Every structure is written in C-alpha cells, then in structure tokens.
Task: structure prediction
Amino acid sequence: MQSTEKLNDPGHSPDESALVYWSENDQACQALWQSMHGWSAPKELLSADDTLSADRAYRLISGGTGLVWRGDFQNGKQLLAALKRRVAKQKSPDADIAYPERFHLVRQSRSQQARLLGLLLIPLAENFQLTHRRAPSVAVACQAAYSSKGLRAVSRAPNVLMPLTELIGVVSAYEWQRQGLPVAALGQHIYPRHGVFAPTRHEYLDLVVQTALPNGAQTALDVGTGTGVIAAILAKRGIPKIIATDTQAAALQCAKDNMAHLGLSAQVEVLEADLFVPGRYDLVVCNPPWLPGRAKTALDAAVYDPDSQMLAGFLGQVRAHLAPNGQAWLILSDLAEHLKLRSRQTLLALIDAGGLKVNARHDIKPRHPKSSKLDDPLADARAQEVTSLWQLTLAEKL
Ligand SMILES: C[S@@+](CC[C@H](N)C(=O)[O-])C[C@H]1O[C@@H](n2cnc3c(N)ncnc32)[C@H](O)[C@@H]1O
Result:
C-alpha cells in the first residue's frame, strides 16, 4: 500500500470535476473524483490490493482514509461485503426513542454508514474501463448513467475515481434498464434508469388501476411521471390524451423511452415542467415523494420531498388545472404520519386550502418486504403504513 503525497480538496459539489492525487509504487496518480451522492473526496488516499485484511481496511476507512482498490475486482466486492458486516454491527438508534427523532437518527446513521463504505474506491481508466483482474465490463452502464445526467466531464476523463458502492449501483440500475421490471398493473415491463424512481412497490399502481376514472375522461396530466408508469396505465385504461411532466432530465428520457417501447408515444406526451403545464384536465394524478426531508441528490429526490414542496405545490395549484367535473388523484403513503414527520391534519388543511374536497379515499397495505423486517429500527412505523389514493374534486367554493 502506498500513501497519498498530496492532500485532496474536499470542497466541491457532486457534479463538479475535482482532481484527486495519490501515489502507487512511487508513481504519482491522478483521477477525476466522482460521487453521485455528492460526497467529497477523502483527504487521504491509499492504494490497496488483495493483501489488505478486512480488519485493517475497516480501521483505515473509520479514520477517513479512502482506499483505491487495485486488487482483483471480485475480491474487492468481497472486501466490501466484509466491511458491510462490520459497519452493520454499529449500534443503531434505540427503538424507545420517540419519532420523529428516531427517524432522523436512523437516517443520519445510515448516511454515515454509507459514507464509510463509500471510502472503498474504484479507479476507472478512459471510457470507463476497469483494469482489475476478473473485472466485468461496466462502460455501457456508466455511459448510460453519467451521460443522461449531463456529466460530460466524467464521461470524457482519462481516469475516474469513484466509490465502489456507487459503481455497483450504476451496474445494477443498468440491469433494470436492460431487463425491465414486470408491472402487473400494466401487464408489461417498465424500464427504469439510474436515478429515476422505479416502481418496485406495486400496491400504489393497483390503486391507479382499480379506481374508477372520471366519467368520459378524455385528458389526463401525470405530474412527476418518473418512468412514466402511471401515464402508461392511464393510457391503457383508455384516456386518449395524456401529458406527463417531470423536472429531471433522466426521468424525462426514461418516460419517453418507455412510451416508445409500449407503443404509447402518440397518446402520452412527455414534457419538462415544474409540476403543471397550462390547461385543464379531466384527471390530474400525482405520486410525490412520500417523506418530507432534505434531498441532497437526485437519488434522494425520489424518496424525499424537501419542505413538502411538491405535495403543497400540487394541492395548492391543481384546482386551476381541473376541468369542471375533473378529479385530482393524490397517491401518498401515511408513513410520514407514523414517523411524525407530517400530520393528517396538515394534509387535510392543504387539501382544504387548495379548494378541494375528498370525494373518496382508497387504501391498500404495502406488501413490500421492508414492512415486515424485524431488525429495521423503523419497523413499527412501517407495519402500520397504509398507501392511499385520495380522490379529490373541486370544493363548492374557495
Ligand atoms: C415518487 S416519484 C414518482 C414517479 C412516478 N409517478 C411513479 O409513480 O412511479 C416523484 C417524481 O416527481 C418528480 N418531481 C419532483 N419534483 C417535481 C416537480 N416540481 N415537477 C415535476 N416533477 C417533479 C421526480 O423527479 C420524480 O420523478
């Protein structure tokens, strides 16, 4: 193992290029640092190979040292698994701490654990080539993930250094993109992309299939379409004209590709917009991220809605986009209520302030495996979770 000769500059944002330096066999090495989580480059880097024990590696990363993996690729993955086992032994917040504090502590400790594991680093040569023994080809997966996010500097850099956990995430996201995800509610596959919310939980889609459409609905707007799955279900249910919006470039491309694949491009138009596009629609559907919370990266933004902006924006403005007999469908889990991150009263007050009334609410229990995981410190909240489709109509007057 060789130590770093130059201190690296951690002060940059995720999409900025920052060069990092270390030495290997007395040779100076440099690479472009890349972290989709927005993690800064470790101040100290050591070149590491198969001779490094998991215990020593754990001690080094615990001290903040980044390990540039040069050994056999599969051994690198095994080292990561061994580090995960050590990290998992760290104490998680006590189950007797009240919500929402317990939730914030769990989120903080998971993010620290992920940061720690993210100190096992993988160097890639030009065009995302791995030069390690027994390394798979990752170039196509990396191009798909980085080019759709406009990270051209990374796509063109001669050498890139990134957390191994992130590379594994990019590769598994590409497998989903290639193989697709069977969606029973659609009777077909949906093809997600890296950083785009994937419909792995199906129950909320069952609600979209089962809820009666407004009589004679001709137009619909799917706000925050992600992969486009809800727009596709509405199209299959026979709504002739649908617009699907999103703010993220990767989601917009993903939804367009899915519509083309499903033969629905003529029926579903995918547009970049902050929530709405002008017009009035018979049906406006929104499945916002279910938990209020900070979202530092695109990966977080699928789950966390900062300051409930999307939820409040949707409920505050949807009235102006509804046809006279139109309906707004809000899809939301009540997990945030069990975690004491948002109250039912707050939600009802937003609905009321938006000039809307609740016509009906359709509930379903999640079937996600996490809802029954006993070692999950949030298991008690998850066990109570119900996902709802709120069928909202115009209130008589504001
Ligand atoms: C939880 S995901 C839901 C995706 C999809 N509708 C589904 O149900 O699988 C929320 C989506 O809203 C998008 N989004 C967040 N803020 C938005 C905004 N202001 N306007 C439009 N889309 C937004 C995100 O990019 C993300 O794709």
Summary: Residues 2-7, 9-16 have pLDDT under 50 and may be disordered. Residues 101-117 form the longest helix (17 residues). The first strand starts at residue 18 and ends at 24. The chain has two domains: 18-176, 182-394.
